[in-house]
């Protein structure tokens, strides 16, 4: 072996007795921290978020070093499935609003722009529908509801939660698709009573609600697709725990410079005073 590698025999035996280098010791310590963070964050973080999480804990290291150590440890984020937009079932007789939001998914402050949509979760007991409302300022989930049916009652429950939590001032922009549940008289009346401006995406143009679609893609990749739900109750508990215990308070968001939605809003609050 020494002859093939062009290494002296004495050098080979000397290396066997040489103590571990400082760099190797630091790598081992950093690898343990990386593995702990990876497990702590549900095995959904890739190297950018792991690097950001290390930085938040005061650990200084290069991004490439994190990539190398994660590769050595065999750690990789859960892969995302290819995105497939949802087809909206609109009511041709309902009153629809113009697309005020456009594709401007930025907001200057909390409660300036909300986006909402519904997605379906597969369980052994049938479909479970999840309605979610996001605040575009911080991408925080301000309201959500789950039910076996996709209808006006489902989205109204999510809106009531958002209103109770946030108490928005009149002038808030509410953007959705033209689904029959959002264009229903009851839902529109509730928005009007709160002084909320309505915006709707045109039919077959789901990319105007890209932030909402991106959120559902994240939810399904990190929470739903990796679990077979035997019951709807199991799905409810799992999704509740993901939204309230991980996504809002903990999950680092790339759009927010790798802080969680809750931390991003808390950092903004002092500037309001």
From TrEMBL:
One of its GO terms (molecular function) is nucleic acid binding. PROSITE patterns: INTEGRASE. InterPro entries: HTH-like_dom, Integrase_cat-core, RNaseH-like_sf, RNaseH_sf, Transpos_IS3, Transposase_IS3/IS150/IS904. Residues 106-268 form the Integrase catalytic domain. Gene3D superfamilies: Ribonuclease H-like superfamily/Ribonuclease H (3.30.420.10). Involved in the transposition of the insertion sequence. This is Integrase catalytic region. It comes from the Bacteria. NCBIfam families: transpos_IS3 (NF033516). It comes from Ktedonobacter racemifer DSM 44963. GO terms for biological process: DNA integration.
């Amino acid at each position: 072996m020494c002859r093939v590698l062009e290494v002296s025999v004495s050098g080979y035996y000397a290396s066997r007795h040489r103590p571990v280098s400082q760099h190797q010791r630091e790598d081992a310590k950093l690898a343990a921290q990386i593995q702990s963070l990876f497990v702590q964050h549900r095995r959904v973080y890739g190297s950018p978020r792991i690097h950001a999480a290390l930085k938040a804990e005061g650990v200084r290291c290069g991004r490439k070093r994190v990539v190398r150590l994660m590769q050595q440890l065999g750690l990789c984020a859960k892969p995302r499935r290819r995105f497939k937009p949802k087809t909206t079932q609109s009511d041709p007789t309902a009153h629809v609003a113009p697309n005020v939001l456009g594709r401007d998914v930025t907001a200057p402050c909390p409660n300036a722009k909300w986006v909402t949509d519904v997605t379906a979760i597969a369980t052994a007991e049938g479909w479970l529908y999840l309605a979610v409302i996001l605040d575009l300022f911080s991408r925080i989930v301000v309201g959500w509801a789950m039910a076996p049916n996709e209808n006006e009652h489902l989205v109204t429950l999510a809106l009531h939660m958002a209103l109770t939590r946030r108490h928005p001032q009149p002038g808030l922009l509410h953007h959705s698709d033209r689904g029959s549940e959002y264009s229903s008289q009851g839902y529109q009346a509730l928005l009007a009573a709160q002084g909320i401006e309505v915006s709707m995406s045109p039919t077959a143009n789901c990319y105007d609600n890209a932030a909402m679609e991106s959120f559902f893609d994240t939810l399904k990749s990190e929470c739903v697709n990796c679990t077979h739900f035997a019951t709807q109750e199991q799905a409810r508990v799992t999704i509740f725990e993901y939204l309230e215990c991980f996504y809002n308070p903990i999950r680092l968001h790339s759009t927010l410079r790798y802080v969680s939605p809750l931390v991003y809003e808390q950092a903004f609050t002092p500037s309001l005073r």
